[in-house]
Amino acid sequence: MDLRNLFSLWFNAFIHPKETFAKEKKNALPQLSLIYYFVAFFAMTLLMLIRDFLFAPQYFYNKTLASTPMILLGLILATVFAVVMVSIGHGILFLFAKLFKGMDNLLQQYYLTSLFAVPLVLLISLIGLIPVQVIIIPLQLIIGIYGLYLLLRVLSEVYAFTLIKAFATLFLATVITLLFLLMFSS
After folding, report:
1. How many separate domains does the chain show?
2. Inter-residue contact 85 to 181 (CB < 8 Å)
3. What is the pLDDT of residues 6-22, one digit of tens each?
4. Domain housing 34
5. What predicted TM-score, i.e. pTM, was given to this entire model?
6. What is the DSSP string of 25-69?
């Protein structure tokens, strides 16, 4: 797949999710999913670093923090951590989809979500470069809500759920996971 087709695929997943997910679910490959998530989170981490350099340059004058190998290591570790956390989140969603009698389609869920992750994360990160917080927060919130809608579309497509059942799966998975984390954090 050439780069232009890849960008087109990501764009279509973001703008035309229902059609794109239906067409792409047969192409689910874990390697592609991992690459897409890695690209999304590496770009996000890099843009956050640029933002911090632009708006808080005093942190970059410390020679230890500003050394290129340390920055590169931090970028890679943050990216790997984000990919691992997303993978765990997909596993949790899959388990709750199974509770609602969803089919065994973790790979499709992971892949289809990775298709919109790149444009979603890049858009949110680019908006984060705007120096006015009053503009950033509502825009990122709107895009985040749209991201939840896209996730509901993925769950609906992969598990043959209605959007209501997909919402119930996501809601229950989120609430129970948060309660579980709260129990063990105190």
Report:
1. 1
2. no
3. 889 999 999 999 999 99
4. 3-185
5. 0.86
6. GGG--HHHHHHHHHHHHHHHHHHHHHHHHHH-GGGGSSTTTT-HH
